[in-house]
Amino acid sequence: MDPGRQAMINGSKSPRTDRGRDVTAPRYDPSNRIAKPSRQLPANGNVANAASRYLTQDQQSEQFVADEDKFVLKQAKKKADIRVREQRAKPIDYLAFGLRFIDLDRDAFDDDDGDVEIDLPAPEAVLQSLNDAQLKELEEDIRSYHTLEANATNKEYWTALLALCLDHRQKRKPQGPEGRAVTSVASDVDRILSPKTLEQLEALEKQIKAKLQSNEPIDTDYWEALLKSLLVYKAKARLKKVCAAIKEARVGILRKRDPERAKALEESGGFSATVPQLSPAPTKPMVRSAASTAVTQTSSSAAPLGTARFASAGNEDFSLATKALYDREVARGVSEGEEIFTAEEAVPGIQRPLWADKYRPRKPRYFNRVLMGYEWNKYNQTHYDHDNPPPKVVQGYRFNIFYPDLIDKTKAPTFKIIREHGRRKGESFAPAGKEDTCLIRFIAGPPYEDIAFRIVDREWDYSAKKERGFKSSFDKGILQLHFQFKKIYYRK
């Protein structure tokens, strides 16, 4: 029975059940959700743990860049794998393909059963087979992988290759007196350093540095040059260590499938001493009409991962921040239907900016693409087919211009269209069969100069479609302007 009812029958007072209760607190009512007891706060340690789950804006930006780098690197490795399998690999592709056998970050779904049976040239053999221009191109490719790589073993591999690539290039240059001093005893240096392990080389490096820092009367030029040689041998030792791991992984995979071939691979050292004939890069024909000013042919010196094909100006921005943004964009590569766009032109009516005395003017770096494709209008459908397609025409552009060092970061760079000879939007002065062109000028504040490009003058598509959508943004130092032209449909 309820205690209050029993007390009333007995003639006594109802027992107090609210003794010790805070009179200012809400009355407890189990059927009323409003009077539900408040949630107890976690202990101090738990509060700290809960707060740690929330990232600051800087941490979110760092996480975004890291995820983006990881995606770009994954795509670059996948493209290298495809080119090796299709026997159209470049030097950087062989170096990246060999690393996949010990790469813990690779996607297992990208593996192919025949990968382990592909003959891979030794990394040093790849370097020795290249001329000066090819070595310079390979160096830029290696730097791209080195910039994006986060795995410690993989980064060590690219660091060693970069050091060896620089050494090969340096040996082909005319040497000064200090270089000739080391060259004269190169055989002795090789005899002393080549058999040493990585640990022994590191110990010897400390001894040489201590000798250089001492007050002993020594030949400083000789010992500094010898130290440079030692760093090269350290790179060789690191590369040898990674290559041994690659060989062991390949042999382990083959041993389960073909023991005889695994034994032959183990005895051969794991790598081939000869480099397959490198397939020349396909030369893209120049597009006629207005697109001829917008598309460049493939040159002999390509950019990182085989994409940079435009020369840099003397006052171009080469800051570390710009290089990081540029390398990340270059690593994305060029998709099917895209080509590098470099139709840069002089900015009309340019004057010395007012801030030139305070800041050194510099030209922003960029990595732009032009979108090419076929237009299957009535005429082309009548005279061409998919086996014999019509000439490609410009269908849009993707501008990526880097402004990481803007003085006033609150003002985003802008752009404007310039039509020469008094022509207005919608008017055409071009003869039949040709297209009008115009200038697109990008404007930013100090320390960047304005920059202009010549593009086809057609109506833009401002739709929000995923593939053909319009994009104009400035984020993390990158101005992105992506657009395609409206498709014209002819009706009877």
From TrEMBL:
GO terms for cellular component: cytoplasm; spliceosomal complex. Residues 355-492 form the Splicing factor Cactin C-terminal domain. Residues 289-298 have a biased composition (Low complexity). Residues 15-24 have a biased composition (Basic and acidic residues). GO terms for biological process: mRNA cis splicing, via spliceosome. Residues 56-242 form the Splicing factor cactin central domain. Coiled coil: none annotated. Belongs to the CACTIN family. This is Splicing factor Cactin.
